[in-house]
TrEMBL record, chains A, B, C:
Keywords: Isomerase. This is Uronate isomerase. The keyword Isomerase applies. Belongs to the metallo-dependent hydrolases superfamily. Uronate isomerase family. Its EC number is 5.3.1.12. It catalyses: aldehydo-D-galacturonate = keto-D-tagaturonate; D-glucuronate = D-fructuronate. The gene is uxaC.
Amino acid sequence: MPLLNADRLFPVDGPSRATARDLYETIRGLPILSPHGHTDPRWFAEDAAFPDPAQLFVTPDHYVFRMLFSQGVPLERLGVPRVDGGPVESDGRAIWRLFAQNYHLFRGTPSRLWLDHAFSTVFGLEERLSAGNADAFYDHIAACLKLPEYRPRALFKRFGIEVIATTEGALDDLRWHRMVRESGWDGRVVTAYRPDSVVDPEFEGFVQNVEKLGELTGENATDWQGYLNAHKIRRDYFRGFGATSSDHGHATARTENLTSADAAALFAKALRGQCSADEADAFRGQMLTEMAKMSVEDGMVLQIHPGSYRNHSAGVMAKFGRDKGFDIPTRTDYVRALKPLLDAVGMEPGLTVIAFTLDESAYARELAPLAGAYPALRLGPAWWFHDSPEGMWRYRQMTTETAGFYNTVGFNDDTRAFLSIPARHDVARRVDCAFLATLVEGGRLDKEEAFEVARDLAYGLAKQAYRL
Amino acid sequence: MPLLNADRLFPVDGPSRATARDLYETIRGLPILSPHGHTDPRWFAEDAAFPDPAQLFVTPDHYVFRMLFSQGVPLERLGVPRVDGGPVESDGRAIWRLFAQNYHLFRGTPSRLWLDHAFSTVFGLEERLSAGNADAFYDHIAACLKLPEYRPRALFKRFGIEVIATTEGALDDLRWHRMVRESGWDGRVVTAYRPDSVVDPEFEGFVQNVEKLGELTGENATDWQGYLNAHKIRRDYFRGFGATSSDHGHATARTENLTSADAAALFAKALRGQCSADEADAFRGQMLTEMAKMSVEDGMVLQIHPGSYRNHSAGVMAKFGRDKGFDIPTRTDYVRALKPLLDAVGMEPGLTVIAFTLDESAYARELAPLAGAYPALRLGPAWWFHDSPEGMWRYRQMTTETAGFYNTVGFNDDTRAFLSIPARHDVARRVDCAFLATLVEGGRLDKEEAFEVARDLAYGLAKQAYRL
Amino acid sequence: MPLLNADRLFPVDGPSRATARDLYETIRGLPILSPHGHTDPRWFAEDAAFPDPAQLFVTPDHYVFRMLFSQGVPLERLGVPRVDGGPVESDGRAIWRLFAQNYHLFRGTPSRLWLDHAFSTVFGLEERLSAGNADAFYDHIAACLKLPEYRPRALFKRFGIEVIATTEGALDDLRWHRMVRESGWDGRVVTAYRPDSVVDPEFEGFVQNVEKLGELTGENATDWQGYLNAHKIRRDYFRGFGATSSDHGHATARTENLTSADAAALFAKALRGQCSADEADAFRGQMLTEMAKMSVEDGMVLQIHPGSYRNHSAGVMAKFGRDKGFDIPTRTDYVRALKPLLDAVGMEPGLTVIAFTLDESAYARELAPLAGAYPALRLGPAWWFHDSPEGMWRYRQMTTETAGFYNTVGFNDDTRAFLSIPARHDVARRVDCAFLATLVEGGRLDKEEAFEVARDLAYGLAKQAYRL
């Protein structure tokens, strides 16, 4: 039995499965558009071999190590670096064995689908990983990684990636993007503008970051107008490296539309370090609207990724730092939160604001009605914890009837796990075909329409929404 | 291929589909009870021909024009009137073409189901609407509308409507209802009592409205007891035109049960225009309980439709006014909100309070447990954005296990789109039969029981709950 | 046609149904672990015959009588005792007839599944209960109840119960548990520690309860350290009667982690009766963390059952008292609420905290991400209103992808309705097999893995999580 079931994620009943297969057959080979993600541009710049299997699949993947941790495996034993630089496991094989002997924990999870997809399609491994074959897997993958066809650029081509966007901070010099460009390689790797460190008064080093923003742009960034100009200049710079979007990951979806004087006063207060928590939140909200206004000018797409309580565990944060699987979703309001921004620019022709959510209760209640009305608003795909078969299914079931398909933007993989990218797109394509097949078989859509929609969901909508 | 699939909305697997068909066959022809809606009584009074196809299907339907608007079609080009009386498209054919060339936007939406149902069953059109056949559709529908069998009363009969309720404000003179009655026509068109303009201190012209209420009833309506009496008199008047229900669409589900003295003081403050937002909300909440108490006396059903953030876009509101597709659902609490009313009258024999929701997260958590306990409380059907196949399915899945079927009240179409009424009831009947079929095939219900429940959901429960 | 469909709750399509059957066949006969419930230990101590059918199935079951009440049947007519001792129906047959003639109200509810299961498997009744056969049912069940094989201990064995946990208050003398033990009977009936009356400053008689806690333990329980010691001593005492868990049912999931001095001051304030509502909530929250710390020492599992608005109807509470079907779920936050406890002990090896929810919107958004990260946290099964086929299905769909199967703890029946216990476990086993079958047929899980998971969900995980 092959590791991957050819009909995986399709409906089980005969007619729907047959229709899903027909739809999928026409889109499975479409190029991958990855308009929002977190791969490391250095990979494509240097094109160095990936390190050992554990460094590829376990140690950097918070989906994987948090699941092992939740069942009592210490992060140190998985090689996750400590803040204090103290010792952690460095033997890739030992990490891999621990991973393999706990592989049953991933049953029913999307990580399991992604991992098996990579094992099978990238490395030709056709057994289920287990304690028994851990060493064989390790040796085989390690041997592959030494070969030129497993280098980042070769995999980029093999995966059929048409374009991939990485995400860089506003102060980043984009050196790796420059190196990619100067190398003459024809892979299309673009950046995205992520200004957290200079728009969030609660970000570590906010004031210094704003000063650095000024230095980089020649603007007096501690003055409100200078600060806005500096953003425009950096956005230009990012666009020079292919950026078509900015990205914003605040704790809430709050936006504001203050007068220029009030915004300037709030900015000044932020620079003095005197903002209350609420004022800091208001400033972040104001900057979303400012960014949207800049988008009206420069055509960049604005992405809002709200609603995560970051670094929930004080203990894990202290010992291992940020982004260690302890970002927990919270309830998120969009109706009141987005109103200031939408009142300001929601009708602007040419503007695209893409909203994501970790709070699925907002799909049918808030997000689909908003996206089904405001011309500037589109719905990002099922995100993060919901980037999964059930999550995608709920997304389509709860957004389509009010927002339709054409107020959504296709799939984003949003990952730093490079090898999971084809797997994630494949899951999305299969689930969308499955969903469309149930509409066809339930008499809600003609099959000929479904072929068109399937193609739009897999390719066309992302191309259009992200101006790729 | 006909435009409508005969098995649409039924389960795909063979046994469930066969059972759904069997159930549906016994209820598809039942008369339509439409106990809550917004059709225009003038149609039935004057029985004039409907204007052109665009005025019938596009310009007045906020489901339709907001979807087009969300994809960049200006409302002016769809003929939606401007507040300032400025020019908008008046050529029905031009509007229709724009609609037809964007018809793909409705894929997967209930609007598509309703429109196709009307095209096929009312007009005999069996192609999918598109840019290519837009003119043919337009010409055919326009020609039909000139015929006597397409007049409102003829369609009313053709649709098999046993009774339809419209909704009028408390100050309405019900002239069209009077005209229907005096015409001798035997179609049953009743009104419903909607007192927003005289119970909401924040409604435009509240004080004048209350004064007018006094004039209409001969009561001193600016005195608390006179005000309550005036409501009773108007409710009597409405019952004289068939009303069996009142309807209340506040932003929240808040109710209050103040002492008479406190209520009178709050009312006086409202008349002085001195209520805070919270006090205005409290007054609306108090009036829900007052209306429920009147219902105990006069037998009218109380309907609560909360949770919509009305006219969300400041720009659309300014340019095009109310009800232009920008009413966005918000989170709604029922547990604390309904307690004062339920403590006051929740055990009254003969009282029926019907609660609706736009916040589906309340179905299983709050509404089914409340309706499954309080004798006076029933659950309204899946509403508005959730008046759709997936919405109805979620409604049954999330309410049945705790509230059963018999604490629900059958289907309401809640529409002003007359031609969508048979389609909407047909969708509800199909989805309910599909749901029942899955219970039968899953061994949770006997087939003979399912026939009985199907009939109750399509007809019996509405007849009973709304005293029709 | 038998009353129970052999394939009930399995998927309808052929391949999934066949797989579900195969899985179920291997686990249907596994012993029942009932680690959290509310059966009366006196039953097993005295082993007396159950009274008449109405007293067995109707009068004590709030699922049953609240549904009848919701449709207008007075609780008095169902024999539910009044607080004032006034007259209620005492004729079991009259109550039973009323129940039987309203049996259609339970269509589509889990109560119907449980009742039919007991009628069929315990009493051999194979007709659907109705007004027509009410007396025949009554006579047959009443006759059975007189037989020795229908006594509690005989049913315990017949049901295949390996261990059952009851729940007793902290001040309970556990006399029935003592009597069970001293009887020499080999059925395993254990207690669980439920300290509401001595940890909740708003509980009736809180101060006297704390004083009694001191008397029982020889500690000065009005002193903070003495109070904590007294809890430890009572926990020891409960462990002496098999307890492996404590249970906490607060209105919210709030936890606190105060300094010892602040906790002591808050406790003193509670004893003086001076806590505000918020301070009382904080104290309950602090006690959750204290209990968790004791669990680290003594190995008892901590169960959190939050989010019920208890005794919602003032009228029913006044007339019939607590627990009469008017406990209504409310929105519950876990992310902020559990952080203090998790920061304090969330990484402790050997600690198990089991969180339940009545707010399903928290499954995918909050609970699965938390349980999929913190080693100490596990998810309790679908609870109360969600202890039902659809509820269990939503639970697996919304928790598995992020938390996996192994951060859940198998099934709890959580009931005082002894005869429903085998039915409830059977429902859970069937639904889990159905869910696993869809994963297998959808290519997400190997069938051989599914056999292993099915066994873990039915038996292994509960055994492990509750240390049984």
